[in-house]
Write a structure and sequence with these properties.
It is a single chain. By secondary structure, this protein is an all-alpha fold. The protein has a domain at 78-228: Four Helix Bundle (Hemerythrin (Met), subunit A) (Up-down Bundle). It is built from eight helices and no strands. The structure holds fe (ii) ion (2 copies).
Length: 228
């Protein structure tokens, strides 16, 4: 855990896990799908560009809209939504800590205490979540419902984009931690940089969570046990 203590280096930080995210994920994704640039339709839907999914990727959600997701969800679908809820809550918590830092309500050590434990858990859990999705569930979904291939390609690429953000978060968090632990007079600068990286990463993550749910939750509901 990253702790703001002089003798405590970032032992088991999410960082060591996150450092490998882009390479592993990129390699896995590149073996599954062609580059975005070869598919103009998907390029326009890149994370950070799109504001939602096009109609042709929402046929399953149209068949089973969100207002009906309270009906007897398959266990895996319910767990999926629970995981996403946890990521949204962690993101909101970190955004709140960054806002309190910017408002002057927290000093660097206060920001460290409020942010780093959550950030560490966020990095580790999101890494594991994406590995399971891209490595286990998405390949199964491709076999079960061929019509969602494009949607799953999109989600796989989202994972790569998000992992790049996680890597940036890791490096910013380590620099901030080291500055606080030193302590160093440039800790406020590192805090500002970390808060900026958090701001940049948030919209893509939230977009991905929403869009992924619109694609995979209806599939799990409609296909029942075969998709769960
Ligand atoms: Fe995902
Ligand atoms: Fe997910």
């Amino acid at each position: 855990m990253i702790k703001a203590k002089k003798a405590s280096p970032p032992a088991r930080p999410a960082p060591s896990t996150t450092r490998s995210i882009p390479t592993a994920s990129s390699a896995a994704a590149s073996s599954r799908a062609p580059p975005l640039s070869s598919e103009p339709h998907i390029d326009a839907l890149a994370l950070g560009v799109r504001t939602g999914l096009p109609d042709d990727l929402l046929h399953l959600r149209d068949a089973f809209p969100r207002e009906r997701w309270t009906e007897a969800l398959p266990e895996t679908a319910a767990f999926w939504l629970q995981m996403h809820g946890g990521f949204r809550a962690q993101q909101a918590h970190m955004a709140d800590a960054a806002a309190r830092w910017r408002s002057g309500a927290l000093d660097p050590r206060g920001l460290h205490a409020a942010l780093i434990p959550t950030l560490q858990a966020f990095l580790q859990h999101l890494d594991g979540h994406h590995r399971i999705e891209s490595g286990h569930y998405f390949p199964q979904f491709r076999l079960i419902e061929p019509r969602i291939q494009t949607g799953l390609d999109l989600l796989d690429r989202d994972h790569d984009a998000i992992h790049a953000d996680l890597d940036a978060l890791y490096h910013s968090a380590v620099a901030f931690h080291q500055a606080v632990a030193a302590p160093s007079p440039d800790a406020p600068d590192h805090a500002n940089r970390l808060a900026d990286v958090l701001d940049r990463a948030a919209p893509g993550l939230i977009r991905h969570l929403d869009d992924e749910e619109d694609i995979v939750i209806p599939l799990m509901i409609l296909k029942g046990g075969s998709a769960a």
